């Protein structure tokens, strides 16, 4: 089960890898991920499957549960198993201890959601990615999307392999209701504090770092001091109030560093997915008649054009139209609006009643239907 709060794409990749490895373990096999990407509206993983009963026992130490706070989005991983022992010697496998968090979040006091299990190891083989990137770069005319492939694979090589999940820039700012720093400013602040940071190919505003959540919120507290949030507008139980009520222990520096700008960005590569055409995305389901998805969408768009826009109404014409209807309350003697009433206060005259009767009934009352022996038709008096 995925915790879809802010980080759905990396969790989807890792849940798929966990499912593949779990199914391979049933046949004394295990998987090694080569490349795992989230592109467009799907995830795609490339794995190699090996046979080895001894190494299958290590699969539990590669899986983890994720505890994520519903208030501030801080997450913690809980591995299902652990492998211990001297390097090169006999490895002992045992269940891991936990949980890594308290019932309430230490930063905002909200509860935690439990997600997973998911794959907690690296999801890319950098040697394999490097060979694919070299093959695409040496022969760019082989694929129509070679620029896009080069950009995505370049970001993959820049990702931190040992950091499974990430934060997003807009999520950090919206949690404490402050202005959003630029991506380079936040990356520089993390680098100044001595932490590692990278992007993620799955999200343009991702911040993948080995910094703990406490250091990340200290940096955001320092950023908020430059443009303070009005505390009187915050609820005392809100995550923003509780986070900002604590003074930062880390003094962040937002001076832009040269290494904060990744190489793929400096080279201007197409690093993230872009819509190749208008109305691009999942097409509507097939319709009877054999129309293509684009044609059906275009026909439906033309059919619904200005459907909810009512034409401008002529108030004078509407008032004259309402005056043709008699006022029911005036007939009962209870209408108190007088001339201000939008309905007519004139009683119908006998001539008008007779005219309406003759108009509504083309046959007069003294006419009777012809008998069975009567002859009707032209020329008959």
Automatic annotation (TrEMBL):
A zinc finger (C3H1-type) spans 321-348. It holds the Pfam family TRM. Signal peptide: none annotated. Keywords: Metal-binding, Methyltransferase, RNA-binding, S-adenosyl-L-methionine, Transferase, tRNA processing, tRNA-binding, Zinc, Zinc-finger. Its EC number is 2.1.1.216. Residues 358-368 have a biased composition (Polar residues). It catalyses: guanosine(26) in tRNA + 2 S-adenosyl-L-methionine = N(2)-dimethylguanosine(26) in tRNA + 2 S-adenosyl-L-homocysteine + 2 H(+). SUPFAM superfamilies: CCCH zinc finger, S-adenosyl-L-methionine-dependent methyltransferases. GO terms for biological process: tRNA N2-guanine methylation. It is an enzyme of class 2 (transferase). GO terms for cellular component: nucleus. Residues 256-297, 352-381 are annotated as: Disordered. Residues 321-348 form the C3H1-type domain. One of its GO terms (molecular function) is tRNA (guanine(26)-N2)-dimethyltransferase activity. It comes from the Eukaryota. Belongs to the class I-like SAM-binding methyltransferase superfamily. Trm1 family. This is tRNA (guanine(26)-N(2))-dimethyltransferase. It comes from Rousettus aegyptiacus (Egyptian fruit bat).
């Amino acid at each position: 089960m995925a915790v879809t709060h802010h980080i759905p794409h990396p969790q989807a990749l890792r849940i798929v890898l966990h499912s593949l490895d779990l199914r391979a373990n049933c046949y004394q096999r295990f998987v090694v991920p080569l490349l795992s990407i989230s592109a467009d509206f799907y995830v795609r993983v490339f794995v190699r499957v090996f046979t080895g009963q001894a190494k299958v026992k290590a699969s539990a130490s590669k899986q983890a549960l994720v505890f994520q706070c519903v208030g501030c989005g801080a997450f913690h991983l809980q591995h299902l198993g652990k492998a211990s022992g001297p390097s090169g010697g006999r490895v002992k496998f045992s269940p891991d201890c936990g949980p890594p968090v308290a019932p309430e979040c230490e930063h905002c006091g909200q509860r935690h959601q439990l997600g997973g299990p998911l794959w907690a190891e690296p999801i890319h083989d950098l040697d394999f990615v490097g060979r694919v990137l070299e093959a695409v770069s040496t022969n760019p005319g082989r694929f129509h999307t070679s620029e896009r492939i080069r950009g995505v694979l370049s970001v993959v090589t820049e990702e931190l392999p040992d950091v499974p999940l990430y934060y997003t820039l807009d999520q950090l700012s919206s949690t404490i209701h402050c202005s959003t720093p630029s991506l380079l400013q936040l990356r520089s602040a993390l680098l100044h504090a001595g932490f590692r940071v990278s992007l993620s190919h799955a999200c343009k505003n991702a911040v993948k770092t080995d910094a703990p959540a406490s250091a990340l919120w200290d940096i955001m507290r320092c950023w908020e001091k430059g443009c303070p949030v009005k505390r009187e507008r915050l609820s005392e139980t809100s995550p923003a109030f509780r986070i900002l009520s604590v003074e930062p222990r880390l003094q962040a520096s937002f001076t832009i560093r040269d290494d904060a700008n990744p190489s793929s960005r400096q080279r201007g590569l197409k690093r993230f997915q872009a819509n190749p055409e208008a109305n691009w995305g999942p097409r509507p389901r097939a319709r009877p008649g054999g129309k293509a998805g684009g044609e059906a969408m275009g026909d439906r768009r033309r059919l619904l054009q200005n459907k909810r826009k009512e034409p401008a109404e002529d108030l004078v014409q509407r008032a004259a139209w309402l005056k043709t209807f008699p006022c029911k309350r005036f007939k009962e003697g209870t209408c108190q609006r007088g001339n201000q009433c939008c309905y007519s206060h004139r009683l119908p005259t006998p001539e008008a009643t007779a005219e309406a009767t003759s108009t509504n009934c083309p046959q007069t009352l003294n006419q009777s239907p012809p008998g069975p022996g009567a002859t009707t038709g032209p020329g008959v008096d």
